Amino acid sequence: MVVELPVPGALVDVVAGAEVVTGRVAQRHADGVVVELPVAPAATEPLRLYWTAPEGVHTVLARVAMRWPVRTGVRWQLLPVGAAERGNRRDAVRAPLRLKVQLTERDSRLVLRGRTTDLSEAGLRGRLELGAGAPVEGAAVDIGLLLRGAVFPLPGQLQTVIGDETGWDVTVAFVDLAESLQDLIRAQVFAALREQRRLSLL
């Protein structure tokens, strides 16, 4: 199946070298797209676009054909290198974040608390404190995640559990998140990435 490039107005994640910048498609042409970014990444190679379509996440390698400043940032004319394909943004938008988190297993009602170690739109990794029982791989969980001073409920599933005498390292995948929650997590992740970049430049 041929995957089309993102349409004008679509949000895109531009992964340039080790940086990730979220922008919006300003124009789409037969041979590429013009993307508006709030800031220009320091590197332009390698460069990959990620975006969400009704059938899932798509990605394509690209190169910069032109770039110019605008009032709200910069615009890049990007030409695809090869065909767009189905992709996974999990690694592209992952940021190290220590946030308070609570997991409640739906079947056992076991409650575990801890902190995340990193966060993405697809899920989280974290460290949980010892509790009344042990988390179970594959269990459906309700996640309470502290974002911007408020606790948000997120549905998820425990993917991996590695325990020791002080707690558990877990990986949790989000399941069927509402679009508003995806946007909130995206904003948190990219704010952390921007701060990471700022600190690296000091």
UniProtKB/TrEMBL annotation:
The highest taxon in the source lineage is: Bacteria
Record's protein name: PilZ domain-containing protein
Q: Cite a single Pfam family from the UniProt record.
A: PilZ
Q: Which InterPro entries match?
A: PilZ_domain
MF terms from GO for this chain are: cyclic-di-GMP binding
**What is the organism field in this record?**
Klenkia brasiliensis
Residue intervals of the PilZ domain: 88-190
